[in-house]
């Protein structure tokens, strides 16, 4: 093979290698875009879960405070008027269960 043939073969090999590199680079860019999208969705889901957790915590605190107040009230009612207190407690509990 003469020099001209070797040069053409090197050019063809180089062009093929460059084509493969360009393809790999395009694939890497696409994968990076997918990764960034997945990271954004993950961050959004995390924020949503944190918000939901905080809402549940607040709801739990309200329920606990209400239950504590109901328990104190029930104790007072039972101590002061046992028969009447039980009826009020039952009605109050029924109303709360309906909510």
Task: Tell me about the largest β-sheet.
Answer: none
Q: What is the averaged pLDDT score? A: 86
* Cα-atom radius of gyration: 36 Å
End-to-end C-alpha gap: 91 Å
Assembly annotation: single chain
Question: Can you tell me the residue ranges where pLDDT is under 50 for at least 5 consecutive residues?
Answer: none
Tell me the series of helices and strands, N- to C-terminal: HH
The 3D shape can be described as rod-shaped
Domain count: the total is 1
Helix content: over 70%
Tally of helical segments: 2
**Percent range for β-strand residues:** under 5%
Number of strands: 0
- Class from helix and strand fractions: mainly alpha
Keywords: Coiled coil
Coiled coil: 21-55
Structure, described:
The protein is mainly alpha-helical. The protein has one domain (3-98). The chain contains two helices and no strands. It has helices spanning 3-80, 82-98. It is rod-shaped. Residues 21-55 form a coiled coil.
Write the layout of secondary structure elements.
Layout: H1 3-80, H2 82-98
Would you kindly provide a brief summary of this structure?
By secondary structure, this protein is mostly helical. Helices cover 96% and strands 0% of the residues.
List descriptors.
0% strand, mainly alpha, 99 residues, coiled coil, rod-shaped
């Amino acid at each position: 093979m003469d020099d001209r043939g070797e040069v053409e073969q090197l050019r063809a090999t180089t062009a093929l290698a460059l084509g493969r590199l360009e393809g790999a680079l395009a694939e890497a860019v696409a994968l990076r875009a997918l990764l960034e999208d997945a990271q954004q969705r993950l961050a959004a889901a995390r924020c949503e879960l944190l918000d939901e957790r905080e809402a549940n915590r607040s709801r739990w605190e309200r329920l606990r405070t209400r239950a504590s107040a109901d328990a104190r009230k029930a104790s007072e009612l039972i101590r002061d008027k046992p028969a009447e207190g039980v009826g009020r407690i039952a009605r109050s509990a029924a109303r709360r269960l309906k909510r």
